[in-house]
Design a protein that fits this description.
Blueprint: E1 42-50, E2 57-64, E3 70-79, E4 82-94, E5 97-102, E6 109-115, E7 121-126, E8 137-142, E9 145-153, E10 156-164, E11 170-175, E12 186-196, H1 212-219, E13 230-239, E14 243-255, E15 261-267, E16 274-284
Antiparallel strand pairs: 1-2, 1-16, 2-3, 3-4, 4-5, 5-6, 6-7, 7-8, 8-9, 9-10, 10-11, 11-12, 12-13, 13-14, 14-15, 15-16
């Protein structure tokens, strides 16, 4: 069972047009779902990795309110496939969307994600202080699964489609061809189809900066369907024109007593040597992470 937080199923609302101004938050009573979190609510506090060249690098950390909604996220920003910088964002929830605000400048809204008719994120747009690292992005869905995302840069769009197997595992993210890249890139995943786990989270592939908006939503728990039911065993990233940018096996999965994935290794597919080690820090109703309601 996947317990990654899927806030959007709780917050469907009427159509609301955000302006490019700082938005006001809502109180807990104004949010559609007023239920208390289950006792076994588990959230990802932080996700990090290390290798011989990097002692430890944290890709993201989260702080939440008692309803399991992110209050602040410290997020890595990717460029050229690597996390080269980070940004601290306060997260403000409204009936119809989420505003990501510069944690050091409360008047500066960096970007806004809005909910569609079915309560899932349908688009991300710039706030009153746009950051060029976050591109406008739209999402479509097929029933309960993410179907596609489209990013826009300088008037040009790039669309990626999401593919799943019959066990509900994400098998690939495939870019559509464009005039400039007739042979597009893709990310492919493989699994041990006879080995299942409870909560899982993987984030080891290199990513392009145009996916930073998408990655940010993953950091705070959206798109739980992208996390598999079976143990992931490899990741392969092919950029345009068949350039293999990354291909690693995944192994040494470590689970906690509740079946949550807490660490894994990526290994060379030829030598089998470990290249990097990844850690997922979960917190289950931990007062140091799930904080008192912080929406004013």
């Amino acid at each position: 069972m996947k317990r990654s937080i899927c806030y959007v199923t709780l917050l469907a609302g009427t159509v609301f047009a955000f302006s490019c101004q700082k938005v006001n938050s809502v109180s807990g009573d104004e949010v559609a779902d007023k239920k208390k979190p289950k006792k076994d609510l588990c959230l990802i506090n932080s996700f990090s990795y290390s290798n011989t060249n990097i002692p430890t690098q944290t890709l993201f950390t989260n702080h939440y309110d008692l309803n399991g909604r992110a209050l602040q996220v410290d997020a890595a920003l990717f460029s050229g496939g690597s996390p080269l910088s980070s940004i601290a964002l306060s997260v403000t929830w409204t009936t119809n969307g989420i505003a990501f605000i510069d944690a050091n400048a409360s008047q500066d809204t960096i970007l806004i994600a809005t909910f569609g008719k079915k309560g899932r994120i349908d688009k991300i747009v710039a706030g009153n202080k746009p950051n060029s690292q976050f591109l406008p992005t739209t999402f479509t869905y097929d029933k309960n699964q993410l179907e596609s995302m489209t990013t826009t840069l300088a008037g040009k769009t790039e669309t990626s489609n999401f593919k799943f197997d019959n066990k509900g595992n994400l098998t690939s993210i495939e870019d559509l061809p464009t005039a400039s890249v007739p042979v597009p890139g893709k990310v492919e995943y493989q699994y041990a189809t006879n080995e299942k786990a409870g909560d899982q989270f993987y984030f080891d592939e290199p990513r392009k900066f145009s996916w930073n908006s998408f990655s940010l939503l993953q950091y705070i728990g959206f798109f739980p369907e992208l996390q598999p039911n079976n143990l992931r065993t490899s990741t392969k990233v092919t950029w345009g024109n068949n350039y293999v940018a990354y291909y690693m096996k995944i192994g040494n999965h470590q689970m906690d007593p509740q079946g949550k994935l807490v660490s894994y290794d990526v290994m060379s597919p030829t030598s089998g040597q470990t290249v990097s080690h990844y850690n997922i820090n979960w917190s289950c109703n931990n007062g140091t992470v799930v904080q008192a309601q912080g929406l004013n």
